[in-house]
Design a protein that fits this description.
The chain has 156 residues and is α/β, with parallel strands linked by helices. It contains five helices and eleven strands. Strands 2, 3, 5, 6, 7, 9 and 10 form a seven-stranded mixed β-sheet that branches. A two-stranded antiparallel sheet has the order 1-8. A two-stranded antiparallel ribbon has the order 4-11. The longest helix has 10 residues. The radius of gyration is 14 Å and the shape is globular.
Length: 156
């Protein structure tokens, strides 16, 4: 069901035909990079966190990791991942398919600076065996981010 929500969301922007579905898992950064044939750092992994009690997603590069101090400076709270068993109910996608498209209403999207190195990135599309290539201007247009943030390390 989740990939259909993403397909419908991306269709509004003429991008649904870019969704690729694989015969193998693309649920992890390494699996996605292997399925797509790109570098792991080009995978746009979407992290599911609670900011207070609000479900939020942050899209970061595949080689980036959240830095507690940077996160706290941005969001005024410690990072708290949504437990795996709660992710789908909170954001609308199951772990392995979380992406910034077709989310439940009210889920805030943030894009991390670690993505800016690339012309295009590869986020999941609502299932554990899907992805699409999307440029950063397109990602901004279709994900409706609240803001760009700088909450990661490991990539610079």
């Amino acid at each position: 069901m989740s990939i259909e929500n993403v397909r419908a969301d991306l269709a509004r922007y003429g991008l649904a035909d870019r969704i690729r579905e694989f015969d193998t898992s693309s649920a992890t950064v390494a699996e996605a990079a292997a399925a797509i044939g790109c570098e792991e750092r080009q995978i746009a992994k979407t992290l599911s966190l609670y900011v207070g009690t609000d479900p939020t997603v942050i899209v970061v590069a595949g080689d980036a990791r959240i830095v507690n101090a940077k996160y706290k400076a941005q969001f005024h709270t410690k990072p708290r991942m949504i437990p795996a068993g709660e992710v789908e109910a909170a954001v609308g996608h199951a772990p392995g398919g979380v992406c910034p498209f077709g989310l439940k209403e009210g889920v805030a999207v943030y894009l991390d600076e670690s993505l800016r190195r690339f012309d295009a990135v590869y986020p999941a599309c609502g299932s554990s065996n899907s992805a699409l290539r999307i440029t950063l201007p397109e990602l901004e247009r279709v994900s409706h981010p609240v803001a760009w943030v700088d909450v990661c390390k490991g990539w610079d």
